Amino acid sequence: MDTNETKIYLAILIAAGILGVFLVFFVATMIRHHRRNRALYLEKLQAEIRTLENERKRIAADLHDDLGPLLSAVKMLIGNVDTTADEDRSTLDKANLHIDTILGQLHVISNNLMPQALIRKGLIVAVEELASERSDKGAMQIGFSVEKDVVVDPEQGIHLYRIIGEVIHNAEKHAQASRMDIKLQASGEKLLLSLKDNGKGFDSRNSEIAQRGLGLKNVVSRVETLKGSLYLDSGPEKGTLYTIEIPLKQSL
Amino acid sequence: MTQTAPITILLADDHEIYLDGLQSMLSKQPGLEVRGTASNGQQLIGLAKKQKPDIILTDILMPEMDGIEATRILSRDYPAINIIALSVFNEDNLIVDMLEAGAKGYLVKNAHKSEILEAIHTVHQNQPYYCRSTTTRLARLIARSKFTPESLIQVASFSDKEKEIIKLICEEKTSKEIAKTLYMGIRTVEGYRLKILEKMNVKSVAGIVVYAVKNGLYKVE
Question: Does the interface predicted TM-score (ipTM) exceed 0.95?
Fold first, then answer.
C-alpha cells in the first residue's frame, strides 16, 4: 500500500475521530442543557401554578368568609325594619332581592375560584359534588367512580380537580357529549385518572387540537407539574378518552 | 294561646353585625328569649353550660372552634339542647357535617324572618328542619348521611298509591308531572301530597325525600 494513501486514511481517521468526539461532546452538552432547562421550566411552572392557586384560595376565602356573612348581616338588619308604608315595604323587598342575587353570585364566584369542598374534604368529595352539580344543570350526565381506599395528596388533588374541570368543560363545549365517566384508581405506585366522553371526538393529529387551545394546554401543564403522563385517545365520532397517570404521593 | 315559659336561645357567630341583627330581631318576638351570644364555638360551649338553653343557633365557620366541633360536643353533653346551623350559602357538605354532628336543622343566613321563626319552633318540637332553599341534591345527601333524628323513624304506613307518589316526589317531579304520569287530577295529587306531609310529620319536599330514603320507601341509585 502506498504510504501516501495510508497517511491520507490516517488523517481522515483522526479528523473523523476528533469530529466524533466533538459531536459526542456537543450532543451531551445539548442534552444536559435541555435537561437543566426542562427542570427549570418545570420548577417555574410549578411555582406559577402554586402562586395562582394560593391567590385563588385567598380571594375565595375573603369572599366566602367575610363578604358573604357581612351581606347576610345587612339583610338581617334590613329585615328588622318595621314599616307599614307600602312604598317603603316594596323598596325593602327589592333591596332584599338584590342582596340574595349578590349572595348567590358571590357563592358561584368563590366556588369557581376554589371550592370549599376541595379544601375541606379533598378531591373525591369535591368531584362528587362537581359531577352531580353539572349533571343537574348541564346537558351532560357525569358518572364518577373511585376505587376504595384511594387517598389523594391535597396539592395533587387541586391539580387533578382543575384537570377534571377542564376536561368536563371541553366535553360540554366542544364535543357536545351527553355522557362522561370519570374513574379514579390507584395501581401500585401510580394514581390513574381516566375520563371518557361520548362526544364528537377529534383527530388527535389534526390541528383541531390546537383550536382547543388554552384548555388542553392547561391540562398538559398540570400533568407536567405532577410529573405524570397524559394519553389521549380520540377519533372523529369515537368520543375521547383521557388517561392521566401520576406518581402517587403519600400524604402524611 | 297562653304562653308558658319562653323558648330560651343562644346565638353564635363570629360576625358581630349579624349577631346584633339576629338578636334584635329575635328579642322582638313574643315567646322567645335570647340568653346570650358567643363569637366562637369555645365561647358557645361555656355559655351553654351555664344557660342550658332550649335552642342554639350557630354559624358553621368560626375561628377557635367551628360550629361542627361545638355541635358535636354539645349534642353529646347536652342532648336536650336543639341546635340549628346557620350557613352563609347553601353548602351541601358543611350542612351535612352539621347534621351529622347533631344539629336538628339548618338555615341559610339570608332566610326570611318568618323562616327563622318557623325553624326555631319546629326544632323546639324535636322535629328536623330543612331550609326552604334545600335542593333535592342536598336532600339526597342528607338522606344518605348519618343524620337520623328519632322523629324520622317510620311510624306511619302508606298505601300503594301514596308510595308511588312519594317515589315520584323524590324524583323531583312536580304535582303537574305526577298528575300526568298517574292519570290523576292535580288537585288529587295535591291532596295526596298534603296527606303524605302530614303522615310523615314533615313540612317540605326535602323532609319527604329524607324520610323516604331513610325508611326505604325510595332507593337512590
Answer: no
